[in-house]
Design goal:
Length: about 160
């Protein structure tokens, strides 16, 4: 996994600045890792099938089915790993409380219970988990001058 992380960082740095489509394979002690990019989207696949995807502004984030992108949300960046966890950062023209409320409903529908809720200045944060399914969700929404900046993270333990 450490090899995949190293290649992910290198691949992201190279891939996000490149144009067009490109694929490169790297040999590690654990096997071959492939890195491919198309525009602002980079995919890395480890020797044992581990997968990491990174997207930039305007890309389509790969969210779990129970967590759709907030209506009108514009992806700023995304990072997903092997389909079980990820982070998406997006901007939307809605109040932080509305965005957090939307994801609170989605978390409740997925069987998660609140573990933290906080408001500090312009930022609203909500964290939930389902101990049985091992799912987690964390959202922070901060009101800015040109909309609300949102960081949505999910995972499976």
């Amino acid at each position: 996994m450490r090899d995949l992380f190293v290649v992910a960082v290198i691949g992201a740095a190279i891939g996000l600045t490149a144009c067009g489509q490109h694929e490169t394979k790297y040999s590690t002690d654990s096997g071959t890792v492939s890195v491919s990019n198309a525009g602002d989207h980079v995919s890395m696949t480890g020797a044992h099938g581990e997968k990491v995807e990174i997207g930039g502004v305007g890309s389509s984030a790969k969210l779990p089915s129970y967590l759709p992108l907030y209506p009108g949300g514009m992806v700023q960046s995304s990072f997903t790993g092997s389909g079980k966890d990820g982070v998406v950062v997006f901007r939307v023209h809605a109040a932080p409380a509305d965005v957090v409320g939307f994801y609170k409903q989605k978390a409740t529908a997925a069987g998660m219970a609140q573990t933290l809720s906080a408001e500090m200045g312009a930022t609203t944060t909500y964290v939930a988990a389902n101990d049985k399914s091992k799912q987690t969700l964390s959202i922070s929404a901060t009101k800015g001058s040109d909309g609300t900046d949102v960081q949505l993270a999910w995972g499976a333990k």
